[in-house]
C-alpha cells in the first residue's frame, strides 16, 4: 500500500516503477495518514482496514515530494487546532 500526494506533478507509480495491479495506491492532499478517529477521516481508516484485512497487504509506504502545497499549508496551521487567519 502506498500513500502519496494527489499532486498531478508527481506519479508514485512511475517513481516506484510499479506496474498496474502491483500496489494499492492511496492519493490525497499532502499524503496524509491522520490519527484514527471514529468520526473524522473515516476514508483513510477504511482504506487501511481494507488493505490490511482483506488484501493482506504486508507493507505500507508513505511518500512525499518537494514543494508540496498541502504540507506548506499544514505547517502554517496552529498546533492548538485553531484556524489561521
Oligomer: single chain
Second CATH tier, the architecture: 3-Layer(aba) Sandwich
**Proportion of residues in helical segments:** 25-40%
CATH topology-level name: Beta-carbonic Anhydrase, Chain A
CATH C-level category: Alpha Beta
Estimated share of beta-strand residues: 5-15%
Q: State the end-to-end CA separation.
A: 36 Å
Count of the separate structural domains: 1
Widest beta sheet: strand line-up: 2-1-3
So how many helices?
3
> Which structural class is indicated by helix and strand composition?
alpha/beta
Major sheet, described briefly?
3 strands, parallel
**What is the mean predicted local confidence, pLDDT?**
85
- CATH-defined superfamily: Carbonic anhydrase
SSE order: EHEHEH
What is the 3D form?
flat
In total, how many beta strands? 3
Stretches where pLDDT falls below 50 for ≥5 residues? Answer: none
Radius of gyration: 14 Å
Q: Summarize this, please?
A:
With 85 residues, the chain is of the alpha/beta class. 28% of the residues lie in helices and 12% in strands.
